[in-house]
Amino acid sequence: MQRLNIVITGHVDHGKSTLIGRLLADTDSLPQGKLESVKKMCENNARPFEYAFLLDALADEQKQGITIDSARVFFQSKKREYIIIDAPGHIEFLKNMISGASRAEAALLLIDAKEGVAENSKRHGMLLSLLGIKQVAIVVNKMDLVNFSEIAFTKLKVEYSEYLATLGIKSDIFIPISAREGVNLIEHSASTPWYKGPTVLEILDSFKSVEEKENDDFRMPLQDVYKFTRDNDDRRIYAGTVTSGELNVGDEVVFYPSLKRSKVASIESFNTEVKTSVKESEAIGFTLQTQIYVRNGDVVARADQSAPKVSNRFEANLFWLGAKPLELDKPYKIKIGSAQSTIYLEEIKRVIDGDTLDRADEPSVGRHEAACVIFRVHDLVAMEQFGENQKLGRFVIVDEYDIAGGGIITEVLEQYTTRRTKALHVNDVLVDKAGESAEFEEELFALLRKHFPHQFN
Q1: Is the preceding omega at residue 48 within 30 degrees of 0, hence cis?
Q2: How far apart are alpha carbons 45 and 255 in whole angstroms?
Q3: Could you tell me where the beta strands, DSSP code E, fall in 77-218?
């Protein structure tokens, strides 16, 4: 069955947890007895039952009435399975939203019909734009508080559509709902006879999953290499999660950026039947006909398909969450796919202020601001533009052990060339041929480790 990752976002108190809780309850997706036990708990504590309590399991969250951490819940319609990510709406928890939204293929953005478009509604729309999430439906909640007024709904739709247009998001999908009352979630409601569009469940099922894409090139970020020695088992298993495409036994694969290659001898997976092929989203391992030495973070591609781009510079849309402003030439840590390296800010092209949402005149990126920037990476990394491969086109930045920002790669730029990268580039052909001789391979890597200890030790 297909699976789709969806982020649920919006301003605090606009009803995200209530929406998810009601969807789970109305589609019988809750564990047996869960709904009854939560209702009993509310009764014992003399509290009115809320569907949000089905998700807000942390005591602090129930006391404060806000969702503190991102929660992943599983939901299943007749068409497919969903992982719905409840992203926090409060400004202080945008850091959690970065990690939640980075896994999303589509989004539901909630707006309170009575309160209208809040500043965080704009921030979250901007964040979805920066993360490149194009499948977005705007869910206008709490319509019961405005007597299910078509005029109120239309006014909000016009206002927010104009704002989304400034971000390059064209969304004609606006759904009037009352999450608490279950209006227009699963079935159309008599409360909104003027609304002829899809329900929330119908729009979820209409979103396209990456698994529905065909003929994508194979990509797998290498997470680890496992070698077994027990009972004379000398296999090396190259493990990771397939981000796109398909791999078959017998396919020739290339590891980037090292350019080493071999043919797939077998596909390995835990506690399953023997496989001869794997597809997107599967966590697998494979063995090679010629065992080669590669490093974690390499990207595996098929030799008969297009190659990922390899560079140490890229242009990106960035959302900054660090307590300190983003600084030029300061070292930060970056993660792209399974690759990790040191990164430096090379140029700030333009900035959008996170509070006023206006373009800033001075080139500095502060907390909760968005920007178009150019980064330089310490090492050569295999990467993709977000439009070509979402999972290899997203990144997260860490500053002193804290998530400080995230975004998407909009363009892979020409390499920043140093003496070290020139030397590695000259040796690309040698590295490619190294698989033909294990002895030559070890000699080559001994030489590289001697001259470039930071890179090869």
Answers
A1: no
A2: 58
A3: 81-86, 106-112, 135-141, 174-176
